[in-house]
Amino acid sequence: MAKKDTAGGRGINTQLAHSGNDPHEFHGWVNPPVVHGSTVLFPDAATMKATQVRSADAHSRSRVQRYTYGTYGTPTTDALCEAVNALEGSAGTILVPSGLAAVTVPLLAFLSAGDHVLIVDTVYFPTRRFADTMLTRLGVEVEYYAPEIGEAVSALFRDNTKVLFMETPGSNTFEMQDVPAMTAAARARGIVTMIDNTWATPLFFKPLDHGVDISIHAATKYPGGHSDVIMGMVSAGEATWPQLYNTQVALGTCGNSDDAFLVLRGLRTMGIRLERHQKTTLAIARWLETLWQDGDTIVGPVLHPALESFPGHDIWKRDFCGASGIFSFVLKDATEAQAHAFMDALELFGLGYSWGGYESLVTHVYLKDRTVSARDYGGQIMRLQIGLEDEDDLRADIARALEAARAAG
Ligand SMILES: Cc1ncc(COP(=O)(O)O)c(C=O)c1O
Q1: Residue 361 C-alpha to ligand 1 middle, in angstroms?
Q2: What's the pLDDT at 8?
Q3: How many angstroms separate the CA atoms of 27 and 6, rounded?
């Protein structure tokens, strides 16, 4: 999609404000129209024939008419894809109906029966469920590796290894991965690398700049930002884009215009929201870390990569340029009843999954699915999503809940 480049080379918030649609394509309206549609009309039979997709290679279809059918994209979905390509530095982006589909579609695109895939053990649980059920059923060998493995991952490469899947920081416990070392090792063997980059967003970590082939995002989180949309985005470099795109077309897993509109609207403010999430989250994480280091009776280690006390901190500092708003901490030596007392005493934090929205949330972390990286954290792990509320109010809410947890002991 050709567009007037109004943001290129400027600061990130300028880019977020101006990339994507060109207002002058739609009578000057600053936001793109939400185009609902299946059918697109052609001016004549020759044009219709020239746009027909008859081969498996949909990517090579003739471009004589920009839009041909709803599943191939609309002006609204294109506007979001263009904005994301500018952020990721990617050749192309597909939109899919959920963050989970943003994981499953690329895995299906690059794996076949008889292939071997390496997946980090600290992966988002539904990714593991997809691998252990669907991929295994399709004849793919699934193997998990420890997040700290670094370039030693090459010892796990087999002749049939086709994909190396990363997620950093890891879900719920936030272990960092040495992405540049791992992608270099994979590239030397022709293995496609993918990363679930939802935590960092392309503002704090740009996977393609670090050698990754495929960048995956649950747009549901920070891009949407308001807990009112579910959408996934997958961005690819030149080499992997045709196969990703062809798979999207073959599966028909297209994102819709309403959700694309909401995510594009969210992107406009994502920079300033992330600044705020980062600041409040770090302040609360440092406060909990101080309680832990001062020997608090119930607060244990804080799992946040931007804290110097966190084991993966050096990698975070080297590769990332910011931290978002979700982390965990350990309720030291606590029982499940104490964890529940903590959660039930919270007034501002809702008990809910997901993250990246404006409101604070808490979940009780379950880690029994882990295999190669299973370990005892010495208590109950509480995951906090820090929203846009005022820091003092959130801190007071947590302090009250900690008191309730102590009292339940
Ligand atoms: C790391 C990560 N990836 C992907 C997803 C899936 O996103 P969605 O809820 O849009 O399917 C989530 C959701 O929590 C997540 O935490």
Answers
A1: 15
A2: 61
A3: 17
Could you tell me the end-to-end alpha-carbon distance of the chain, in angstroms, rounded to an integer? 60
Spatial distance between the Cα atoms of 395 and 283, rounded to a whole number of angstroms: 9
Q: Give the mutation target among 98, 172, 201, 221 for probing the ligand 1 site: most ligand atoms within 8 A of CB.
A: 221
Q: Tell me if 278 sits within 8 A of 325, measured CB to CB.
A: yes
C-alpha span between 301 and 328 (Å, rounded): 9
Per-residue buried b or exposed e for 124-135, using 16+ beta carbons within 10 Å of the residue's own CB:
beebbebbeeeb
Q: How far is the CA of 354 from the centre of ligand 1 (A)?
A: 7
Query: What are the b/e assignments for 304-341, b being 16+ CB within 10 Å?
Result: bbbbeebebeebbeebbebbbbbbbbbbbebeeebbbb
**CA 43, 51, 58: angle at the middle one, nearest 5?**
155
pTM: 0.96
Q: How close is the Cα of 128 to the center of ligand 1, in Å?
A: 12
Dist. CA 63 → ligand 1 center (Å): 34
Ligand 1 pocket test: pick from 171, 175, 198, 222 the residue with the most ligand atoms within 8 Å of its Cβ.
198
Give the pLDDT confidence score for residue 249 in this predicted structure. Answer: 92
Give me ligand 1 centre to Cα 195, in Å: 13
Q: Which atom of ligand 1 is nearest to the CA of 353?
A: 14
Q: What is the pLDDT of residues 344-366, one digit of tens each?
A: 999 999 999 999 999 999 999 99
Percent of the chain predicted with pLDDT > 90: 93
Ligand 1 atom index nearest CA of 101: 11
Amino acid letter, 26: F
Lining residues, ligand 1, CB within 6 Å: 98-100, 124, 171, 196, 198, 218, 220, 230, 232, 354
Closest CA to 152 of 167, 164, 140: 164
Query: Among candidates 118, 129, 100, which has minimal Cα distance to 219?
Result: 100
Give me the chain's average pLDDT, please: 95
Query: Residue 95 phi/psi, 5° resolution?
Result: -105, 140
Per-residue pLDDT at 5 exceeds 50: no
